[in-house]
Amino acid sequence: MIETDINDIYGRPLVFPIYQTGSYEIPGGEKFRYSREYNPTVENLNNVIKRLEHGDLANSFSSGMGAITTTLLSILRPGDEAVTHIDTFARSYHFFSEFLRSFGIKTRISRPGTENILEEINKRTKLVFIETLSNPVLRVYDIDEISKACSENGALLICDSTFATPYNLKTLDHGADVVIHSASKFLSGHNDVIAGVAAGSYDLIKRIDDTRRSLGTSMDPNTAFLVERGIKTLDLRMEKINENAMKIARFLNESPRVSDVIYPGLESHPDHGIASRLLRGYSGVILFKLKKDFNDFIDKLSNIKAANTLGGLNTIVSNPYTMSHRSLNNDELKILGIDKDYVRLSAGIENPENIIEELNTAIS
Fold first, then answer.
1. What does the pLDDT look like over 118-168, one tens digit per residue?
2. What distance in Å separates the CA atoms of residue 91 and residue 326, rounded to the nearest whole number?
3. Which fold has domain 234-363?
4. What's the predicted TM-score (pTM) here?
5. What residue ranges in 29-146 does DSSP mark as E strands?
6. What residue spans in the chain does CATH classification 3.40.640.10 cover?
7. Which of 87, 133, 181, 319 has its CA 20 to 30 A from that of 68?
8. So what's the architecture of 11-231 in CATH?
9. What is the pLDDT of residue 321?
10. Where is the secretion signal located (predicted)?
């Protein structure tokens, strides 16, 4: 019996379809047996991410934290030493400071800034984890210098580049061994999925992929379809988001009702020189300090929403003190330099004059 190609029956779709299946008939292909391990829709996304990040391979996960934890657990073993910085997403920080330490993995956590993390890297370091643009204080880490230090000391460099995005920074081209994204944010860009991705060298991603299949941090095909759809407009969205964020940051910086504005595109930013050298654009996240209560501020907003996320089509604000970084203690928050009056804004693609007008009303 001659097998008929399904595409000869149904035609070849312009959009890669969702393979909504838990398993596959045997005998079948060598790779596709069970969807927790491999799924064609997810593999299609992996190929998109691989090309986007200039990696040898890519892998997809059920969340951004799933991508981070699976990557770290595939590399680190009890007795190893890892280095990171305190100004990361709070869950990433706790994974290093509590979870990994409980398994006998020594973690050295630096204060914010490239110079501080460089001081922590030595011959005992197995792995360095950085956010290329940190959450929430938006320090820009000099990946060129850090990757050089890692190479000299035999350490691997893992970069969470969620805030920077592949549009603004090709992390692997600057010496990172693995780049990770919370694809829930700018990559998918519609605030309708929870997802994570990682890309890097062939050998490392194969190790990470094997750990993913054991831990079960796999992405489902519907999510993969939505992330891949969002990536199709990534360049268009990020170009507009970069432009909008710059205009909003300048407005906030000139407002007498705002006491502090942190944005890499402003010359006042401590890492503006590094950002100008590394980044194509300064991305869409701004941190600023109000001279009024946050709840009173959001009560005056209408189209801008308060939510514990970022990177979508619409402008969103959050309060790191009570939201994304609420699990940090007062000493840790003091090191970050943030308090209850700071607002993290994620610029959307709306008319920037409308965003500025609404912000001006709310902070007045």
1. 999 999 999 999 999 999 999 999 999 999 999 999 999 999 999 999 999
2. 10
3. Aspartate Aminotransferase, domain 1 (3.90.1150)
4. 0.94
5. 57-61, 81-85, 106-110, 125-131
6. 11-231
7. 319
8. 3-Layer(aba) Sandwich (3.40)
9. 87
10. none
